[in-house]
Amino acid sequence: MRYPEDVRYTSEHEWARLEGGLVTVGITSYATDQLGDVVFVELPQVGRKLEAKKPFGVVEAVKTVSDLYAPLAGEVTAVNEALAENPGLVNQAPYGEGWMIRLKPEHADDMKKLMGHDDYAQLIEQEQA
């Protein structure tokens, strides 16, 4: 399985992409494979301040319910409203239309603390071993 090189990853299987000073956040294709079909996504309100590595929402799938964890501290500037109508976008395009939130990071340099795609692929290999 390949993971995009233009995003950074967390050990909780979220991804983060820095664009124009904002960070777009979603869950990885590995996470969607583990969850199964996503049927509901609970996201925070715009303006909410998030703490790094703390839960910011919930994703509910046929198999299970799982917390979503903020990869960085920051303020939510947008949520993907399309997921309310079509939560399956998370499965169909986890790195595209299935994004979850955008946030203005407190410290953009914190992106460097997240894993690159090679490290994330290694983590997945270890979890599957």
Describe the structure.
This protein is globular. A hairpin with a 4-residue loop joins strand 1 and strand 2 (14-19). The mean pLDDT is 95. The protein is built from four helices and nine strands. 21% of the residues lie in helices and 34% in strands. The chain has 129 residues and is an alpha+beta fold. It has helices at 29-35, 82-85, 89-92, 117-128, and strands at 8-9, 14-19, 22-27, 38-42, 49-50, 55-61, 65-69, 74-79, 101-105. A six-stranded antiparallel β-sheet has the order 1-2-3-9-8-5. Strands 4-6-7 form a three-stranded antiparallel β-sheet. The chain has a single domain (8-106), classed as RNA polymerase II/Efflux pump adaptor protein, barrel-sandwich hybrid domain (OB fold (Dihydrolipoamide Acetyltransferase, E2P)), CATH 2.40.50. Its cofactor is (R)-lipoate. It comes from Eiseniibacteriota bacterium. Belongs to the GcvH family.
Helix and strand pattern? EEEHEEEEEHHEH
Helix content: 10-25%
Strand content: 25-35%
CATH C-level label = Mainly Beta
| Global morphology | globular
Quick one: CATH superfamily? Answer: RNA polymerase II/Efflux pump adaptor protein, barrel-sandwich hybrid domain
Output the radius of gyration: 13 Å
The CATH topology label is: OB fold (Dihydrolipoamide Acetyltransferase, E2P)
Low-confidence stretches: none
State the separation between the terminal residues, measured CA to CA.
15 Å
The total number of structural domains is 1
Protein structure class: alpha+beta
Number of strands: 9
Number of helices: 4
| Average pLDDT figure | 95
Subunit structure: The glycine cleavage system is composed of four proteins: P, T, L and H.
Protein name: Glycine cleavage system H protein
Function: The glycine cleavage system catalyzes the degradation of glycine. The H protein shuttles the methylamine group of glycine from the P protein to the T protein.
Keywords: Lipoyl
